[in-house]
Structure formats: C-alpha cells, structure tokens
Amino acid sequence: MELYDVMRSNPAVREFTGDALPDDVLGRILDNARFAPTGGNRQGVRVIVLRDQDTRDALADLGLPAARRYTAQLANGESPWNPLQPTNLDAAAIDAAQPPAQMSAPFREAPVVLVFVVDLAVVAATDQDLDRIAVVPGASVYPFVWNVLLAARNEGYGGVLTTMAVAEEGRIKDLLAIPDSYAVAAVVPLGKPVRQVTKLRRRPVNEFATRERFDGAPFPG
C-alpha cells in the first residue's frame, strides 16, 4: 500500500476473524518495524509474542481493574485516568463497575498479542525532573509500536495499542518473567480485522497546528 493510504486507514482494530497470523508474516512485520527511531539508537525495546491462550487470558484479566476504573469514571462524567483530574469515586464504586466485554475480548480472541517493554537503563528521560508525569521516555518505544501497526496494516492485519494492563505492571512482570529494569509500555493484540475501514475521521490541521506560538495563528491558515 502507498504510505499515506496506510496512515489514513489504520484504525484501532478490536474485532478479529478466526484467521491465523503466521509466524512468517509476523516476522516480516517486526523485521520492518525495527527501523523505528529510538533515543541514541540504543534500541532498548523488547517484544514478547504471546500465542498461548491461558497466558492471553491471564493478561486480559490483568487489564480488568484499570478497565473498571475507566468505565466508572466515564459514567461519572470524568476524564478516565487523567493525571490532572483525580477521580472522585471511591474504591467500592470502581470495583462495582462492569467494563464492556470488548475491553478485554481482543486479548482473548486475537491470534497473537504483543507485549512491548523498554529497557529503562538505556532511555534518556530529559523530563524526569519536571513537576509532571514523564512522557519523553515513550519516544524510545512508541514509534516502534506504531511501526508494527503500520506494517500490520500493510499485510492486511490490524491491532490496537492498549495500556490498561500496564496499571498492573508488577503482575505482568511476574506472568512473563520481565526483569525489574524494564517497563511495560504497551499491549497490542494483532489479527485479521472483521472489517477494514477505508477512511478515518480526524480534526483538520488548522485546529491543532499554530504558527510560532501555542496561541499563534492557525497553520496553514
């Protein structure tokens, strides 16, 4: 596919057919995705390929606590998991929430789930001393994750970048024998989409790009 076509038609895929994703195709996806940039070209990303049903089910279960909070906050008119807007809900209200099945179904039903981890010993977190949550270290892993999704689209497959399970990182590390020095960054189910969209809806450029300053004139005009 032409690059711009791939970029404009790569949705979050959460429903999969029963088709397999063969190792040779997944290998080709990862072989091309590995050329994503990383800080200092340190290439600290590791990918764990999960096909075992029990392991995928366990990982899906680990995402449920965060999904309950997400569901409860959304129903309460809050911005789920927002670091600047703490929840007003108590633990009982969160525990009582019933997240939609589709929040965990992709991990149970996709033929393969990829767990992306990054070696914290090689990232450069230049925002670590700022009085906010660090985001810069993500530059060492998320371009790789997106390359995987672009390559999957090119091969006729799809997936979605998820982070719900990351809230239970310690238990994920126990499940998958991940060393302490690594951070879990994303969990991505991959498979053949039940349906493939051809056009995504996004805000036009002049609604998010400005000239010279944050409050500058809209770009391009």
TrEMBL record:
Its cofactor is FMN. Residues 13-192 form the Nitroreductase domain. The keyword Kinase does not apply. It holds the Pfam family Nitroreductase. Keywords: Flavoprotein, FMN, Oxidoreductase. One of its GO terms (molecular function) is oxidoreductase activity. It comes from the Bacteria. This is Nitroreductase.
